[in-house]
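Progress note, sequence design subtask.
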């Protein structure tokens, strides 16, 4: 698990911000029905993000993250991965997610992502980004190679070399059609400096605009307000994410 069950995004709430939110259900092109959570500012948003969660799929951490984006004027839609195997219903903290993770494919995740991207565009959003975490970090970079017309793709501690349900982000670098921001943990036990260097080389060789930031000493899932020792890394990652969205919108 990437987060403790009671974790929350390490981002201050903007009191009094005018935002709306809804639980939604979508149907992908292959007939899959899946859950999503939408948060929007009351003013028309020019930029929007599709939030791709960690291995637990859609749960409250990502719903709160969507609200934090909306408070800052960015429309945000967080989606769930497991409609094909677990249905679109809300799940409790006892949900055994790994058997469902193992049944995911890039084709399925990207079919669902496409619906989310199109929904944001239907709301008048002009520049759509993906922002993913762990499992979703990789999925975010794969999304940039999947023909969604993204304005950019952000990944927090995603594996650029893992082949899970499809080719790795490194292998797909030549297909990536949007700027990339990678926010990596320096003390990640499963994603090494060599993995990040391979991603850097592949993106450079493909001519993809990118930045790979590694936070020395930070563990996997450092973006968590409970990890006070890594608050500086979380603050910097959030600042970079907002700046990336702003500069590419």
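Output:
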């Amino acid at each position: 698990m990437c987060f403790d069950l009671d974790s929350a995004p390490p981002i201050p709430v903007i009191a009094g911000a005018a935002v709306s939110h809804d639980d939604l259900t979508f149907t992908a092109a292959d007939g899959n029905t899946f859950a999503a959570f939408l948060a929007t500012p009351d003013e028309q948003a020019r930029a929007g993000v599709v939030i791709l969660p960690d291995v637990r799929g859609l749960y409250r951490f990502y719903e709160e993250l969507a609200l934090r984006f909306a408070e800052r004027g960015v429309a945000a839609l967080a989606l769930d991965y497991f409609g094909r195997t677990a249905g679109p219903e809300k799940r409790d903290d006892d949900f055994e997610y790994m058997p469902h993770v193992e049944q995911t494919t890039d084709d399925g995740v990207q079919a669902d992502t496409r619906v989310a991207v199109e929904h944001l565009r239907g709301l008048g959003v002009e520049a759509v980004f993906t922002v993913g975490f762990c499992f979703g970090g990789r999925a975010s970079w794969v999304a940039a190679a999947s023909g969604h017309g993204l304005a950019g793709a952000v990944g927090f501690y995603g594996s650029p070399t893992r082949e899970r349900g499809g080719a790795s982000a490194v292998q797909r670098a030549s297909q990536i059609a949007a700027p990339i921001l990678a926010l990596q943990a320096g003390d990640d036990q499963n994603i090494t400096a060599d993995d990040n260097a391979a991603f850097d080389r592949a993106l450079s060789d493909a001519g993809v605009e990118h930045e790979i930031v590694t936070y020395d000493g930070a563990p996997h899932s450092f973006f968590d307000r409970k990890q006070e020792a890594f608050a500086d890394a979380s603050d910097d990652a959030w600042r970079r994410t907002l700046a990336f969205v702003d500069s590419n919108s």
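The longest strand covers residues 19-27. Work on this subtask will continue into the next period as scheduled.
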